[in-house]
Give the backbone structure.
Amino acid sequence: MVSAEYTVSTFETRSRVGPDGKLHVSVPPELANTDVLVRVDPASAPNGALPPGTRPARRAMTAEEWKAFVESTAGTIPDFPGVERPGPAEYDKRDFDW
């Protein structure tokens, strides 16, 4: 079993994607020749605008907001003309000798 001790766990840094679409990230030397997980979160621009293709995060709805949303959508799908729900099925009557 191989065991290694690292002094670095996770870290966060800011960087800028170049005009060629490439992102260069420097990591501590202790991470040389190791696999890492990379996550890219677009940061908002200084003027508060979001980068193209992104959307702002939404906060979770409260229970009251969710209920209001569900109630506002109830009955909004129009009926389909010409579609009729059949009545209950009729079953054969059988005699059983118990």
Residues 87 and 93 are 18 Å apart (CA to CA). The chain has one helix and no strands. The two ends are 70 Å apart (CA to CA).
